[in-house]
Each structure stands twice: as structure tokens, then as C-alpha cells.
Fold these 3 entries.
Entry 1:
Amino acid sequence: MSKLTPRERTSSRVAGLFFAAGCILVVALQATVGLYFTRHYFVAHFLLGLFLPFLFYSMGGMRLTFWIGMVLTTTWHFGYELWEDQLDRPAYTPDWDQIASGAVGLVAAWLIYRAWNRLLDLKTKQSTTARPGTSR
């Protein structure tokens, strides 16, 4: 891989911290109210969709790594819910609450990604338009 730009390094670091915060949140929720195999299971699907793409984004801080994370997370989430989870059931009965919450998490991840990049674009624009000799 080529050398990362300062923007990519910053994005990679922040995405890694965001993913780590998500992991801490999941562990805290599991230890307190419980997520897996409880009535709160849909929250785990939301958090998966929200945080997992940022694991991939942290591996390079580039648009490509984020979208690889989105595609892999989407494939895993919907593939599991619509196919794998159905193999041990007598009838095809998707868990629509879990499917929808995972989709909402993925949309939220995309919105956070867009907001982060707009913030970086704004900072770049401000730093390039600042006059020499003035403070930022």
C-alpha cells in the first residue's frame, strides 16, 4: 500500500477509535442488559451495522476501505438474516426487526462517514484560504 496522506492517517485513527468505542459499548451492554438472545437483540444488529464498517475504514482511512467495509458488513448482515439464520427453522420467517435495525445502522454509518468527510473538507478549505500571518 502506498503511503497514507495526513487526511487518511487522521481518518484511519479516528475510525479505529470509533470502532473501539463501539466494541466497548457492546461489551458494556452485553454485561448489563444483555444483547444476544434477549428482547434487545435488534440493538446488536444496529450496532453491527453502525460500527463494523469503521473497522475496515480504519485499515487505510480511504474511501475504498470504507466502502469495502460497507459491502462486507451488508453482505454478512443480510446474508445471515435472510439465508443462514433460516436454515435451522421449519419455515422461512425472517426477523424483520433485526433486518431493519441492521439497515438503519448501515445508513447511520454512511451518514457519519459523510459528516466526517465534510468536516475534513471544511477544515482543508479553511486552512487553504487563511491568509499568511493570521491565526486559524
Note: The chain has a mean pLDDT of 90.
Entry 2:
Amino acid sequence: MKDKKRKNMKKRKLSIIFILTIMTGMISCSPKIVGTWTINKFENGTPSEQGYSLSNIGTITFHKNGSGEKNINYSVLGTSHTDLFPFKWTAADAAITIVGDSTEFSKTWIIISNKRNYQQWKSTSGNTIQVLELKKN
């Protein structure tokens, strides 16, 4: 009887440790991204054609609860683009996914550099390669 209780206690402890480990892992992915970031550079191009590179096109804000807002304005070849839409986000070890409106920022981005005050992300879609460089405000 005592052995059965010990086994159950051990299983509970292991379950609690496992859950805490998973929660810690999930939490550790997101603190660096929470806050407001300036989009220092936005590049869009293909390997075979010249693309464009834009500087200081706006800000993107990530909240702890997985929501956020964009305040992005830029012009390419005389066409203005504005993105003021809210979004939801999730982060994993090497990727961040932005879900919401149908702008070109709503997708999964591969995190190339993940520092406290600097982020570099890359995304591909077909032949198109996009790069974002973010600086924390």
C-alpha cells in the first residue's frame, strides 16, 4: 500500500515538474519580443530580380497576452501601403507567427537574430524573400 502511494506521489511530482518545464519554455520565448519595436528595415525581393529595401516604415507592438498592433506606412513605386490592423501572435524557439489581417506581415517569420533590443526575421513565399529588422523602442 505504501509503495503504491509513493508511486502515485512520484508520478504527481513528475507531472508537475513536466508542466512547469513546458510553461517555462513557453514563457522564455516571448519576453524579448514583448514591447514596441521600430521597423528599421523591410526588404522584399526574389533571387532573380532586384527588390526593394525600405527604412523606418513604422512600429509594431507585441503585448504579453498574444495580441498586438501595427502602425506601418510606406510607399513602393508610387503605391502607398498602410497597415494599422491589430493581430494575434505566437512565438516558438526560432519562429514567430502573426495572424490577423491579410497584409504581407501576417505570416510565420523565421527568427534570424533574437537579441534584447534587436530582432531580424526572414520569411519566404514562393520566390519572394522578405526580411524585417526591428529595434526596440
Note: Strands lie at 35-46, 49-55, 58-62, 67-76, 79-83, 86-91, 95-100, 108-114, 118-125, 128-136.
Entry 3:
Amino acid sequence: MADDGGLIVRHTQRHEISVPCRIDVANAHAAAVRFTPVALAQDGRVSGRIVDVSAGGLGVETPVFVPRNTLVRITTIAEQSGQQSPPIDVTLRIKRVIMIDREPTYLLGLSVTGQDDGAAQQIQDWLQSLEGGRHA
């Protein structure tokens, strides 16, 4: 591996997309992180939009603050996004939270965890379909 001079560098290519999703706190953190009813969509989950995907995880925009290091379950909403591939249903860890708009809107940087729930494979399959031009 080349010396990066101590910089934090991206190791995988990011693909920009726009796919609606729902966010749930994973069972491991459900007791510690709870949302007020006003923050929830009609189905009882937080609304979001996946804005980028890479082999390492997802970028998700949401109007609701979620603490860093929280494990969350991200589920795509195929009927609203026009997806041609199976929906994504993965558990990821929030590594970055940035307020990007005064609305408010937060950008969550989500990373694949060491847990073997198939998240890495689902994301890899999704990336292959992106590279085929199906989600552009």
C-alpha cells in the first residue's frame, strides 16, 4: 500500500444515486436511541434518501439527527424509487453525521460493520447493477 502521508483517503469509488429509504435503529441500540413520533413517517420509521453508495457503505440524507456510531437498518423503498433490482435491507454503522442544510438535513456516512448480515454482499450486488447503468 502506498504511503498516504497520514491522510484519510477513500479506498473505494463512490456512485451518486437518489433512492428513497427508511431508517430504523438496530436492535442493539434501540433502547439508547429513540425518535419522537413527529420525526417518524407514517410507517413508524425515519425517512431518508440514499445519495451515494460504495463498497464500504452508503451516504444517506435525512431530516432527523442520528448519533454517530449508532447501528441502523437501511431499507430501500423499491416502489417509490423505480428500482429494477431487489431492495436493499442492510444494517450499517453511522461513522459520520454532518448537518448540510438548515431545514435541517443531515448527511449520514454509513459503514459496513464486521457483523455478517450480508450487508457487504448486498451492497456489492447493488454496485454491480449501478455499473450496469440500472440505477443511474
Note: The helical segments are 78-81, 119-131.
